[in-house]
Amino acid sequence: MDTIAETIKFAGFRKKKVMAKQIQMFDDRLTEQGETLLAVCAFVKGTKKLYVTDQRILLHEIKGIVSNDETSIPLSSIGSINTISLFT
Asked: How far apart are the first and last CA of the chain?
């Protein structure tokens, strides 16, 4: 499954181009740092995105026009992952 294409596809009416541009800008930045973007998941309204690279997992949140918050977790620091299904 191509999560990047799926994230853009489900971005919603008139948000697909914005979502694609945001992902591309993030991917360009990661490529400059020597990372490869593997997957993307957007949360409600697209203001929060989870990026998975070959080196880390990043949670990126758009808080305003010029304000962003980012949390980075190296893959080497991840021992396990718990998931919760919202559709059960």
From this structure: 22
Structure confidence at residue 1 as a pLDDT band (50, 70, 90): low
pTM check: above 0.90: no
- Report the alpha-carbon distance of residue 6 to residue 77 in Å, rounded: 28
Nearest to 59 by CA among 74, 49, 45: 49
